[in-house]
Specification:
- This protein folds into two domains: 176 residues, MFS general substrate transporter like domains (Growth Hormone, Chain: A, Up-down Bundle); 214 residues, Up-down Bundle (Growth Hormone, Chain: A), CATH 1.20.1250.20.
- Helix content is 80%, strand content 0%.
- α5 crosses α9 and α15 runs parallel beside α17.
- It comes from Coffea arabica (Arabian coffee).
- Its main location: membrane.
Length: 471
């Protein structure tokens, strides 16, 4: 068995094999140990993603008080993460294709560490802005490369469950930032965010690169060694290896990929599926619900900090259940159930605003609103949270995954920004109308999923790609 440093460096450096005994101590007879370890290390980046996004909420009052920031200055601090993430999304595919999935994750962990340290030492707004921008840029890359890496290393029978752990650890990081932020200062909270970044950085030295990326980059010996480590020494990898090599060989015969190739007949369905699903993930109004939740909890007499923690914990619990169910039920049923639940939650919130505006059954208004929010977030976590990222990691062939995945990730962050930006304007126009608009997007999402999304459960990536090209 080749050592992991040899795999990562093309097998040319025989001096660095110190990590090999750590791997050989473990019994890989079930062929899954290294897949679980690799995925666990990768989703440290997902935890960093969640804790970074969640940082601005608990840190708002302490930062504004200590550094004397105005509301407009803190708004810039909060929103500049999205700008950084959109730029990261535009470059994530190119970076992951050029230096590998591990290389992209390692680079992102370094940038995120630099961003959090800039926030920790900040004495004024400019350093805060720099730190938040760097953190956002790293999150933009991580949001693409983690589901891609996990999808490429995982056996098809477990791809849904392990792939869903990406969303699980995002919401776990979000919950952790709320909990820690309720008891610790904003500088301590920034240091807390370093932990998953460091775990990711050093953990990557213990795991192999994506075999599919190694095959695509022409490193055939390293490809075989990485696949052997991931499947275990006793596993028969010949069939899977031949399938991957055959697919890669056919892809290398194609001309150099440009943006226009995304719209070729062979690729357009994958683009429509993944971009459309990611657009609906945002346009059903998830960010509006997140921002409005504190107001709902306050209006119902609940502590908004406690409400935020409850909000995040529900996401963790439901996301964990989704990871268990997704390879049993399939992607389509969970996505359809999720979109239907989002429709119900949006209608309940819209009804609460309507009753409040017309002073009808006012005693029911806060309870309807809270039930609506909790229904919404629970059903979002069932499918529309993890599903679009999982589908994105499955439908693109290797040669266009960088461009296609970058486009999908950009759509995610652009949609996030657009919903956040327009939410207050829509609420000024009509509170009930805002959530009826989100409900209509949920209805369109149901139709889109039913008509366009294929079931990918239990199929290899190569089988999924061949099916999409043939339709």
């Amino acid at each position: 068995m080749a050592s992991l440093p040899d795999i990562e460096k093309g097998g040319r450096d025989g001096k660095e094999g110190s990590e090999m005994p750590l791997l050989e101590k473990k019994d890989d007879s079930n062929g899954l140990y290294m897949v679980f370890l690799s995925s666990a290390i990768a989703v440290c980046g997902s935890f960093a993603y969640g804790s970074t996004v969640g940082y601005s909420s608990p840190a708002q009052s302490p930062i504004m008080e200590e550094l004397g920031l105005s509301y407009s200055q803190y708004s810039i601090f909060g929103s500049i993460l999205t700008i950084g993430a959109m730029i990261g999304a535009l470059t994530c595919g190119t970076i992951a294709d050029a230096i590998g999935r591990k290389g992209a994750m390692r680079l992102s962990s370094m940038i995120c560490t630099a961003g959090l340290m800039a926030i920790y030492v900040a004495k004024g707004p400019n350093m805060l802005y720099l730190g938040r921008f760097l953190s956002g840029y790293s999150v933009g890359i991580l949001s693409y490369v983690i589901p891609v890496f996990v999808g490429e290393i995982t056996p098809n029978k477990l791809r849904g469950a392990i792939g869903s752990s990406n969303q699980l650890f995002i919401v776990a990081g979000l919950a952790a930032s709320y909990v820690v932020g309720a008891f610790a200062g904003w500088r301590t909270l920034a240091l807390f965010g370093l932990a998953p970044c460091l775990l990711l950085f050093f953990g990557l030295f213990l795991i192999p690169e994506s075999p599919r990326w190694l095959a695509m980059s022409g490193q055939e010996e390293e490809f075989g060694a990485a696949l052997r480590i991931l499947r275990g020494p006793q596993a028969d990898i010949s069939e899977e290896a031949d399938l991957i090599k055959e697919n890669v060989t056919s892809l290398k015969l194609l001309p150099k990929v440009t943006v226009m190739h995304l719209f070729d007949k062979a690729n357009i369905r994958a683009v429509i599926i993944s971009v459309g699903l990611m657009a609906f993930q945002q346009f059903v109004g998830i960010n509006g619900i997140v921002y409005y939740s504190n107001y709902i909890f306050q209006s119902a007499g609940y502590n908004p900090t406690v409400g935020s923690i409850l909000f995040a914990v529900i996401q963790v619990i439901v996301s964990a259940g989704t990871a268990i169910l997704i390879d049993r039920t399939g992607r389509r049923p969970l996505l359809l159930m999720s979109a239907s639940g989002l429709l119900l939650g949006s209608l309940l919130i819209a009804m609460s605003f309507f009753l409040k505006a017309h002073e009808l059954a006012t005693h029911l208004v806060p309870h309807l609103a809270i039930i609506g929010v909790l229904v919404y977030i629970a059903f979002f976590s069932i499918g529309m949270g993890a599903g679009p990222w999982l589908i994105m990691s499955e439908v693109f062939t290797l040669h266009i995954k960088g461009l296609g995945g970058g486009l999908v990730t950009f759509m995610n962050w652009f949609g996030s920004w657009l919903v956040s930006y327009t939410f207050n304007f829509l609420m000024l126009w009509s509170s009930s109308g805002t959530f009826l608009l989100y409900a209509s997007m949920c209805l369109l999402a149901i139709i889109f999923i039913f008509k366009m999304i294929p079931e990918t459960k239990g199929r290899t990536l190569e089988e999924i790609h061949a099916s999409l090209r043939s339709n």
